[in-house]
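Morning. Coffee machine broken again, so started the prediction first thing and wrote up yesterday's gels while waiting. Chain of 219 residues, entered below exactly as on the submission form.
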Amino acid sequence: MNRRPTLLAALTLTAAAALTLSACGSDDSSAAKDNDKIAGADTGSEASASPTASDPASAGRPKIDLPSDLSYTFEWPKTGDKDKDAILADGEQSIKAVDLAIVNQNALDKAYLYYYEGEAAASTEKFVRNYVDHKAAITGAYRFYAPQVAVAKDGTASLSYCEDQGKAYVKDLKTNKAKKTEVTAKSYVIYHTSLEKNDKGVWVIRKMVSQSGSSKCQP
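Came back before lunch.
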């Protein structure tokens, strides 16, 4: 899974490319390309409420406290549909949970394991471990936008969205310095996730694919 797919070869890659390494899936997945239709999504003006804003203790969701040098903007409008809004809310927390694992330098951090299962969990563990092995973390600002949510009759769901990593960077923990680079087309990434509601009522991610440099996510 790749939420920031090409980051850490040796902390020498550009931050824009680097920060495409963070969640699950492969960069050039044909599935991602076939479903790469986010550009026309209506982002709306109302940001979605996070789970903590509505019910922080619901289903025992983990508390996610991130350092002040990380900031997030979710341009995810509420849909008015109970399931779709729950997917958006859990999706937001799942993104932050992976970043918390990087901050904690823990490839088996409990917060992300709450939101990722199966293939997605295994890929996330490898992804976070890469940061840990390279003594690297993340810093800066992330923006997520143009979500598309669908719920199937069999109880599964899909969530696709864009990420702007133009102001997000890799940080070398040995020097505590960020590797800042200019924004390129690869700073914009599209994600396609497959989810299921577990027995706690949480929408967990089972699979994720991504494509950096997606034309559908360019400004």
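The CA atoms of residues 98 and 112 lie 5 Å apart. Going to sketch it on the whiteboard this afternoon.
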